[in-house]
Amino acid sequence: MKNKRYAIVLDTEKCLDCKACTVACKAENGVPLGRENYRNWVEEDELRGTYPNLGQSSTPGQCMHCGNAPCKRVCPTGATGASPEGIITVNDKKCIGCKYCMTACPYNARYYSEKLEAVDKCTFCQHRLAQGRLPACVETCPTKVRLFGDINDPESEVSKILAKRRSRVQKAEMGTKPYLFYLI
Ligand code: SF4
Ligand code: SF4
Ligand code: SF4
User: Fold this and answer.
1) Ligand with an atom nearest the CA of residue 62
2) Higher-scoring residue by pLDDT: 173, 150
3) Nearest Cα to Cα of residue 11 among 21, 26, 2
């Protein structure tokens, strides 16, 4: 059997822009308040249509745990690493705060934490996964926008939905091999 490889699939059409995922993430991971501190986010897209028939969608985002991660390549101390399941991690004890990784990430998925005195980012709630639980954002989302699982297991929810529905990866041209998929 293949090693686990975690991925997240987002069905953005179901997103209510309630931001429960961002609140859950901050609470779970002790991320300080303020827009400059974040492990995930929800972007409001441009208005569509003509008045009075207007519509707006929202796009949640977070670290894509890239298979070819530029943030990891540029880190001079080895603070940025990868777990066997592909989770891109930061060891705050080794981080010197040079922010090279923040510049290298094309998705702006990292922030500098004054609290940790290190760069911080999404870890797919690694501590919860170790307890057999889902990431906090996935568990919290009321409309099941977010699906999480092992993409190497053909029976997982993420594998099944990706086999059934077309998807795209954001900024695919960047060649970072993101493991976050948006359903079309
Ligand atoms: Fe690194 Fe950014 Fe990819 Fe996350 S999204 S693994 S921070 S390059
Ligand atoms: Fe590595 Fe920290 Fe520098 Fe980022 S800020 S490149 S994690 S040492
Ligand atoms: Fe969208 Fe779900 Fe996040 Fe609410 S919790 S903003 S519905 S992804």
Assistant:
1) 1
2) 150
3) 21
The residue segments making up the domain with residue 49 are: 6-183
Examine residue 22 and state whether it is found in any structural domain, yes or no.
Answer: yes
| Ligand 3 atom with the shortest distance to the CA of 17 | 6
3-state secondary structure at position 93: coil
Q: Compute the distance between CA of residue 120 and CA of residue 108 in angstroms, rounded to an integer.
A: 12
Strands 40-44 and 167-168: unpaired
Is 38 within the bounds of a domain? yes
Among the bound ligands, name the one nearest to the CA of residue 97.
2
Q: Tens digit of pLDDT for each residue in 41-51?
A: 999 887 888 88
Q: How many domains does the chain have?
A: 1
Q: Is the CB of 23 under 6 A from ligand 3?
A: no
User: The domain that contains 155 carries what CATH number?
Assistant: 3.30.70.20
Distance CA 9, CA 170 (A): 12
What whole-number distance in Å separates Cα of residue 22 and Cα of residue 24?
Answer: 5
Residue 4 per-residue DSSP state: P
